[in-house]
């Protein structure tokens, strides 16, 4: 110890040094054996960005989530009090020998688990909570009658008004009204006289003196005559100002909050120290007043949902590109109700309304007149109320049903909050209008927001928090989302990036963040911003662990761990660990693709189409009256930045429109004018990332029908025939050979009331799904349960002579899913895996052709080598006469397409147009195309 140091100082220095050493200690994992990991050891540096990569199914997620994150969570839970732990699900220790240096861990995965219809982007990111605080503290309330600001007056604001509006030397009276305490006027006058108020000012400014008998009570009227407090001359003098303040304060007090100022020979001005104006009493703003999740702030009509069952605007105005005069309003198009249209045209001529402008381009004020009415025109809302009043007539009920659907709540205009909360504005907008903005526009609004010095003193910290969160959301490429967008409508990638932005907004340090492919759903243009976000998370003092395949992310990483060499039982090893430059020299699959030793080749030729689907006038969401042509018999990629309108064009409009024409599709179809070329296809299939089955019983074997062949094989064994078992007995989905205690699930779910349900292996069968006697039946030394535990790759070798089984399973292997277990529950598959299982099923059908397949980002979770396999599967579909349309950001898939439709140029309001169409080489020459810019570099 230094002689000059005290023992306390020495101990503090020692603790600081120990803390610093702990902060720099790496994360050490030894003997990890979770799932297919083969007893691996790995060291991860602290406060660095580490990327874990490898082929699909190699064990990346097993290391990142099931080992490292799970142990971090378990240790955090163990650190809580015994009281807190009883409310949390018990967390088992991962199968690992030793983990040292782990921090509190947070996982940000590609899952959108929110189903709450009240949850929005704004509430999830806490931006809405800060907005509520901002509007409650710095908002100004405006009267809907006069548009004037509602303020609580006091003597000083009244004096300021007088000096601002009138010249010095003006004479005026300070007055208050004759109180009405349910007493006669004479009694009130007696009370006033006792208080010393003896003068009454009449309408003609004559004064009645209550101290004399020169008046009669009948002369005095409560609503006309005022009690005179003082007669004053406006003068900028300290003594005069003091007297004015005292007199006005007296008037407020005696007048129960209302003071009158009458100028000599002029007008009377009313001031109130209550929050009211134009005869209306207003609620003083509080944060709860702006909450649609609180009964106090929610609209009473829609209960805070913003939508009610009523008239669907899309059905009333089926083509928003038509004009009012041209027949845009469907209910008025017939002769029966044409009088309403004539009334509307008269009102339009009187007020010069632009009824020859397409409905889509009409300003909100004109649309309000159209729906709410004016003068002799009753409005669509009242029109349909009139129809409802005649529901005793069958044809009226049928007419009304044609236009019924979900519509914006008429009480709150769809803003969810009570009407008077919309009278409070900041920067000229109320909170509902702010939440209708995209994140990009909201960032611009708040950056330019000008507040007074007093308001800034109140709201500067609130504004800082809002701006910071908006910046992070913009940086992760979500500028196209609106703040009122429902969270349950977000994709997994969007939900993950919102969670990432939330983590940055919380400014936590010393934590371990584990992310699952954050670049999914992100155009290459936005990758740089996302990488910058992750580096910021690292630089403020966190360890960032990313499971990723994106080459740009790997280049930016401090450290890379490559798991492999292959998938399933052939993976689970650390094949490379080090910086990116060293990975380029490695002989791993990842290293070979990154160094271009292996590559996804360009197709030898670009196919040309002879038949086309032509979609005209698509105008759903942000699409701007788009005309698009989709070639058939080729591989088509729909590209563009996030939020540009790709899914709206492809899924919500083209796919939904085709389904409605070809089948019994009952979902909502995006608006369009015409769809041509349908006769060229027989059916359409959507291969998206939804689960392969709603039940936990669904698995790859049952979904691809391979399990039918497996059950037949076991039923044909000599032992099965002796015991009397048939193919049905080998099914765990129906009574027979299955374990009835768990009904073939293999697990039993125990309800814990207010605790999380616990899933435990079935005690009767030990988790093996079948009765013990049925498990004695074996084929080549394996029983049915052991077969279901096999990976698809193992099963292909095991059933090599059974073509009915291998034909179904080989396609699974071809699309890179050989590592999946045959009996793996469908609800444990990722979105990308579920999509490829569906693809394999279609490939196994040996379709005769003329089917149009839609894929939504099929490369989710895929390594370069898996993408190569996937492209070969697409080519197989096309070679037998089918067509494939893919929404994709992966440049290797885009460069391999025969035709590209690039949507954009930006997201949200800045998108919704076709930037360019053509081959990849042609798109690369379009300067406005963000996709073309990256294609140009890739194609050289």
Automatic annotation (TrEMBL):
<dbReference type="GO" id="GO:0008270">
    <property type="term" value="F:zinc ion binding"/>
</dbReference>
<dbReference type="GO" id="GO:0004518">
    <property type="term" value="F:nuclease activity"/>
</dbReference>
<dbReference type="InterPro" id="IPR017871">
    <property type="entry name" value="ABC_transporter-like_CS"/>
</dbReference>
<dbReference type="InterPro" id="IPR041102">
    <property type="entry name" value="UvrA_inter"/>
</dbReference>
<dbReference type="Pfam" id="PF17755">
    <property type="entry name" value="UvrA_DNA-bind"/>
</dbReference>
<keyword id="KW-0267">Excision nuclease</keyword>
<feature type="region of interest" description="Disordered">
    <location>
        <begin position="1"/>
        <end position="22"/>
    </location>
</feature>
<dbReference type="GO" id="GO:0016887">
    <property type="term" value="F:ATP hydrolysis activity"/>
</dbReference>
<keyword id="KW-0547">Nucleotide-binding</keyword>
<dbReference type="GO" id="GO:0006289">
    <property type="term" value="P:nucleotide-excision repair"/>
</dbReference>
<keyword id="KW-0227">DNA damage</keyword>
<dbReference type="Pfam" id="PF17760">
    <property type="entry name" value="UvrA_inter"/>
</dbReference>
<dbReference type="InterPro" id="IPR004602">
    <property type="entry name" value="UvrA"/>
</dbReference>
<keyword id="KW-0963">Cytoplasm</keyword>
<dbReference type="InterPro" id="IPR003439">
    <property type="entry name" value="ABC_transporter-like_ATP-bd"/>
</dbReference>
<keyword id="KW-0677">Repeat</keyword>
<dbReference type="InterPro" id="IPR027417">
    <property type="entry name" value="P-loop_NTPase"/>
</dbReference>
<keyword id="KW-0862">Zinc</keyword>
<keyword id="KW-0238">DNA-binding</keyword>
<dbReference type="GO" id="GO:0005524">
    <property type="term" value="F:ATP binding"/>
</dbReference>
<dbReference type="GO" id="GO:0009380">
    <property type="term" value="C:excinuclease repair complex"/>
</dbReference>
<comment type="similarity">
    <text>Belongs to the ABC transporter superfamily. UvrA family.</text>
</comment>
<feature type="compositionally biased region" description="Polar residues">
    <location>
        <begin position="1"/>
        <end position="21"/>
    </location>
</feature>
<keyword id="KW-0479">Metal-binding</keyword>
<dbReference type="GO" id="GO:0005737">
    <property type="term" value="C:cytoplasm"/>
</dbReference>
<keyword id="KW-0863">Zinc-finger</keyword>
<keyword id="KW-0228">DNA excision</keyword>
<feature type="domain" description="ABC transporter">
    <location>
        <begin position="600"/>
        <end position="936"/>
    </location>
</feature>
<dbReference type="GO" id="GO:0003677">
    <property type="term" value="F:DNA binding"/>
</dbReference>
<keyword id="KW-0234">DNA repair</keyword>
<keyword id="KW-0067">ATP-binding</keyword>
<dbReference type="InterPro" id="IPR041552">
    <property type="entry name" value="UvrA_DNA-bd"/>
</dbReference>
<protein>
    <recommendedName>
        <fullName>UvrABC system protein A</fullName>
    </recommendedName>
</protein>
